[in-house]
Amino acid sequence: MAGQSGELAQACAGAANTFVDRVPAEVQAIMATRICDLGLKIEGSPVERYVGRLYRELERKRLANFRPQCYLSDEWGCPSGEPTIGIPLYLADARLAVLERELNDLEGPVETMQYMRHEAGHAFNYAYELYKRDDWQQLFGSFRRAYRDDYRAIPFARQFVTYLPGWYAQKHPDEDFAETFAVWLTPGSNWRARYRNTPALHKLLYVDQVARRVRNMKPARPTGEADLTVDEMDYTVAEFYERTLQEQPVPAQLPSDTELAGIFRSNLRGRKKLRPAAALVKEHRKALADSISQWTGVQRPLVKRLVETIESRLAALDVKADSRLATANLLDLMAYTTVLALNNLEQRRKPVREKPRSRETATAVPMAVQAPPVESATEEKIAAAGD
């Protein structure tokens, strides 16, 4: 284990030192610039259209008095009790987006709107202080329940909706409500039919009833305090991303070189069509990390780190893959990495301790969820209209 830890530390250090070399010159030019000096704003940036779309979706639900304030921050989040939405700064700047894509796989438009709706669910909860109500607590649970990142999820549990990957609604009652709100808000989600005869439908009906009840009411908390804004970030872009790398979860168990080599061993007759196995993994790295995180509930940064470690070990060992077995290799690799991820989840779990809610951390970048059948003719028009 000590040897594996040393290997991983070396791999992480190498990633921190080399990722800058892989980005364009115009991106490297801002690495020494303080984030607060970049002049980042939502207005006029790509983020503006996502905020506008969120507001339009809220308007279609006739929530006339609920427009959560949005601001640029270091990550996705909604400060506990504050009806405000923090949006990652890299979505507002093309140069930062290049860095994020290199390190963490940048969110696409569908994923971005999923996060917007989810955070709006938190903000709605806080704006109308629903979490203080007895009926809310009876349905979703205690808001004061211990909050942890390495939570044990029950796949396909019918009392929870499925929206963000990793069975995220099971993480905490506050997340359960936010996920339920997001499904309810999504145009064309067909939630009544999709969750018919499930306990989760009661939660969706609750959201629908509460929204109808408060649609013309002023929120108890119409505005809130931001947590960390870009104007307060007085450290450089390089320091920000170095810190991001250091804060990523470190796997407790690493892949075996012998097992990795065995996955790509070919016994087929005839002339082999060889290519570097590392190249095959790199080509499918995002899909592997997305899918494994979605179905296991393991934090995506941890899964991504495992996949990257596998890629680097295959490159170091100069393992070759037979192109004729690419599909079989990927299936074996996904199964192998899934077991590794679940083993890491068990080894990383710590005793639960009560702690105050601060801001939530979006540790996974969700896969693009295909839109289910539309709910009605009106919803169909909305879904087709898009932006």
Describe this protein's structure:
The termini are far apart. A two-stranded parallel ribbon has the order 1-2. The chain is mostly helical and about 375 residues long. Helix 3 (about 45-60) packs across helix 5, helix 5 (about 110-125) packs across helix 7 (about 175-185) and helix 14 packs across helix 15. The longest helix is centred in the C-terminal third of the chain and has 23 residues, at about 325-350. Helix content is about 50%, strand content about 5%. It has helices spanning about 1-20, 25-30, 45-60, 95-105, 110-125, 135-140, 175-185, 190-195, 200-215, 235-245, 255-265, 275-285, 285-295, 300-315, 325-350, 375-385, and strands spanning about 70-75, 85-90, 275, 320. The protein contains 16 helices and four strands.
Topology:
Blueprint: H1 2-18, H2 25-28, H3 47-60, E1 69-73, E2 84-88, H4 94-104, H5 109-127, H6 134-140, H7 173-185, H8 191-194, H9 199-214, H10 237-247, H11 257-263, E3 274-276, H12 277-283, H13 285-296, H14 300-317, E4 320-322, H15 326-348, H16 377-385
Parallel strand pairs: 1-2
Antiparallel strand pairs: 3-4
Helix pairs in contact: 3-5, 5-7, 7-9, 12-14, 13-14, 14-15
Number of domains: 2
Backbone CA Rg? 22 Å
Helix content: 40-55%
Kindly report the average pLDDT value: 84
Number of strands: 4
